[in-house]
């Protein structure tokens, strides 16, 4: 497998090139988990760094993420037995009463690029819906977003609902959105606050002890 | 025989030609007719289809052009806003412009410590009072997301009441649910002396938003319909931001935003023809590094200048716009640069209701200093926009003859002409400093941030509302608020 070439093609966002190189690596006998961890996720780590430094723009970061996801799709049928090992499963949503999702979508894409599996519940997500998703999908992190200050209390309600369902100690809760603050996160008993997509990746790794 | 006076030209910025305006307008109509909008409000959807719109399944509705054209025809071309004691205050039409502050910011710059901290209700009051005391600010908005309201579900009602207590000027307000609207309307009627009085002399305007692309949530349309029925002026700018909710190219972002605005206007005018609707979307840009919606970018100034041109070419309705805001995190050179850029262009392009003055950190932090500085920047822009009066007095040939005749002692500075005219001829700054270095140094080497901080404090401690607030009305406001708590 030409690690360098595949890495560069993901970083550059060369969708066709990366797909071809991924297929080549699979045909050459490299295992899908190795391709995923050693190259694809490693490439997205580099993309994440460049993005954090401000040397690439959001559309470019997203193109790299899309390229990576394309390659992952090629890998999927080749996983034996238990399937692809990811860093963890994250249940994401914009809280009840709030319909804004650009920020949440960016965070989801960055987390996926970093090797997490995302279950995106969309917008206007009730506390019950979060709880059900954690139960059914065995999520390890719940990520909540809000743009309106009137909907922030829904974050607290969701945490309460998780407690009531006996799930609070089984998940980590991460929150974000324009009016949200670290102070608010502490107030409501969330595990952390992330101000932007880049930090969300760092925090997610930290919460699951992966850093 | 007297000659006909030389008319003074007021500088006017134009950014679109007729073809561009038409092309964008046709694209907007095409979006309405062929793509459609997602109308999640059942009543509004039925209203649209009853009048000829096509229901495409789920909640998608396509709106034929004639509905948009008819709504533009019935909507008033002039919205007259009064102040809270019934005086005419803002004549929103054509080339009249009015500046004011902005809505909910999570943080504010503390006047004492300079620290960025969460807003409280007192801040809402302070910003309203500052606006009341600044000559070049015409309306107030909350400039805060107060964290200490008794019930957070009614945050907008408490904010509105706090503004009522601290200024007489017109208010632009936010609401979330229909219940917020009805309570705010109740408060406003108490101030105006009744619903009929408020309808006759509205001192408030609601700011609501559809969600780009193309989404009209039910609770938003509830507010739109309520305002139409009660004839409370409303604007419904969606955030069709380039690269965010809208295409990254400005023409496409404008077309989408206009389409969404027209869809709202159609529902509004079908509900009550002739009810007041302030036109135009917010077309800023998503920053391509931080993904924030930018409040200092040149794109927003450009697209709203284009909206003003489209108003003059096609729509005729007064427009909503912004200025005096920044993405800077403090009151620094970036804040000054970005604020001045938008203040000047908004005025030169004749935007009508110009909000967000005093915003820092892309609308996350409000600053009393920025509002105070902007007041002077608006005056400076105004001086430029007034142009150059050319007449016998201003040509000053007689003054010149006197100076010549006085020989070596001839000095314009001492001439009566200068004494008589300097205050109107020149812009006389209060905050912008032109003193000699030694004077400036001896007075403490204070920069603009410090000087504006001092001026804001002086206004806040010294400014009296004129007339004073009616205790009976204030009591009624308290009583209505207690019903919530």
How would the blueprint of this fold be written?
The complex is a heterodimer of chains A (211) and B (485).
Chain A: H1 3-12, H2 15-27, H3 32-53, H4 58-75, E1 89-94, H5 102-113, E2 117-120, H6 127-137, E3 141-145, H7 153-164, E4 172-176, H8 182-188, E5 192-193, H9 197-207
Parallel strand pairs in A: 1-2, 1-3, 3-4, 4-5
Chain B: H1 18-35, E1 37-39, H2 42-50, E2 54-57, E3 60-62, H3 65-74, E4 79-82, E5 88-92, E6 98-99, E7 107-109, E8 116-118, H4 121-133, H5 155-166, E9 171-173, H6 178-192, H7 195-200, E10 204-207, E11 215-216, H8 218-230, E12 234-235, H9 250-271, E13 277-278, H10 298-315, E14 320-322, H11 333-348, E15 353-355, E16 359-360, E17 365-366, H12 368-385, H13 392-395, H14 397-405, H15 416-425, H16 437-442, H17 448-462, H18 471-482
Parallel strand pairs in B: 1-11, 6-15, 7-17, 9-10, 10-12, 12-13, 14-15
Antiparallel strand pairs in B: 1-3, 2-3, 4-5, 7-8, 16-17
């Amino acid at each position: 497998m030409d690690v360098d070439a595949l890495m560069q093609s993901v970083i550059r966002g060369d969708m066709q090139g990366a797909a071809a190189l991924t297929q080549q690596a699979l045909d050459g006998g490299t295992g899908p988990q190795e391709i995923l961890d050693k190259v694809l996720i490693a490439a997205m780590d580099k993309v994440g760094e460049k993005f954090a430094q401000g040397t690439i723009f959001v559309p470019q970061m997203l193109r790299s993420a899309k390229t990576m996801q394309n390659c992952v799709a090629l890998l999927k049928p080749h996983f034996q037995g238990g399937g692809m090992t990811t860093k963890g499963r994250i249940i994401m949503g914009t809280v009840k009463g709030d319909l804004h999702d650009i920020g949440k979508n960016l965070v989801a894409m960055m987390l996926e690029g970093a090797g997490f599996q995302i279950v995106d519940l969309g917008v206007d997500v009730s506390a019950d819906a979060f709880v059900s998703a954690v139960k059914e999908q065995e999520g390890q992190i719940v990520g909540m977003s809000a743009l309106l200050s009137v909907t922030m209390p829904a974050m607290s309600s969701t945490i309460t609902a998780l407690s009531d369902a006996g799930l609070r100690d089984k998940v980590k809760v991460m929150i974000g959105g324009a009016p949200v603050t670290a102070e608010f996160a502490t107030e409501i008993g969330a595990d952390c606050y992330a101000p932007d997509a880049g930090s969300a990746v760092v925090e997610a790794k930290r919460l699951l002890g992966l850093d | 025989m007297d000659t006909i006076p030389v008319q003074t030209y007021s500088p006017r910025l134009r950014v679109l030609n007729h073809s561009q305006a038409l092309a964008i307008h046709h694209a907007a109509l095409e979006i309405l007719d062929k793509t459609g909008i997602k109308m999640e409000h059942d009543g509004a959807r039925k209203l649209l289809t009853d009048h000829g719109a096509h229901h495409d399944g789920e909640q998608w509705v396509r709106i034929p052009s004639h509905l948009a054209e008819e709504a533009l025809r019935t909507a008033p071309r002039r919205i007259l806003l009064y102040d809270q004691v019934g005086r005419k205050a803002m004549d929103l039409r054509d080339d009249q412009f009015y500046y004011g502050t902005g809505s909910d910011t999570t943080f504010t710059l503390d006047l004492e410590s300079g620290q960025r901290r969460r807003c409280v209700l007192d801040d809402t009051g302070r910003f309203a009072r500052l606006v009341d005391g600044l000559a070049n600010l015409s309306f107030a908005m909350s400039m805060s997301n107060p964290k200490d309201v008794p019930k957070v579900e009614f945050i907008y009602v408490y904010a509105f009441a706090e503004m009522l207590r601290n200024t007489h000027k017109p208010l632009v307000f936010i609401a979330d649910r229909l219940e917020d609207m009805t309570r705010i309307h109740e408060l406003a009627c108490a101030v105006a002396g009744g619903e009929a009085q408020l309808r006759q002399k509205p001192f408030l305007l609601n700011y609501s938003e559809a969600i780009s692309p193309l989404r009209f949530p039910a609770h938003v349309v509830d507010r739109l319909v309520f305002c139409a029925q009660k004839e409370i002026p409303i604007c419904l700018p969606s955030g069709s931001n380039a690269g965010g909710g809208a295409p990254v190219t400005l023409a496409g972002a404008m077309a989408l935003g206009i389409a969404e605005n027209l869809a709202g206007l159609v529902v509004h005018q079908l509900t009550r023809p002739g009810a007041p609707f302030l036109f135009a979307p917010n077309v800023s840009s998503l920053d391509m590094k931080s993904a924030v919606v930018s409040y200092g970018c040149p794109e927003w100034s450009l697209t709203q200048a284009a909206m003003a041109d489209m108003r003059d070419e096609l729509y005729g309705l007064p427009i909503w716009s912004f200025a005096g805001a920044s993405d800077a995190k403090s009151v620094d050179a970036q804040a000054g640069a970005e604020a001045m850029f938008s203040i000047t262009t908004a005025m030169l392009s004749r935007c009508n209701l110009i909000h967000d003055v005093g915003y820092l950190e892309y609308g996350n932090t409000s600053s009393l200093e920025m509002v105070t500085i902007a007041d002077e920047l608006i005056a400076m822009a105004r001086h430029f926009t007034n142009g150059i009066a050319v007449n016998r007095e201003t040509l000053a040939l007689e003054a010149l003859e006197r100076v010549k005749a006085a020989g070596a002692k001839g000095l314009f500075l001492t001439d009566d002409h200068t004494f008589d005219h300097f205050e109107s001829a020149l812009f006389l700054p209060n905050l912008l400093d032109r003193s000699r270095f030694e004077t400036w140094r001896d007075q403490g080497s204070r920069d603009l941030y410090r000087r504006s901080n001092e001026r804001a404090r002086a206004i806040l401690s010294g400014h009296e509302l004129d007339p004073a607030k009616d205790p009976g009305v204030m009591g009624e406001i308290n009583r209505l608020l207690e019903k919530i708590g």
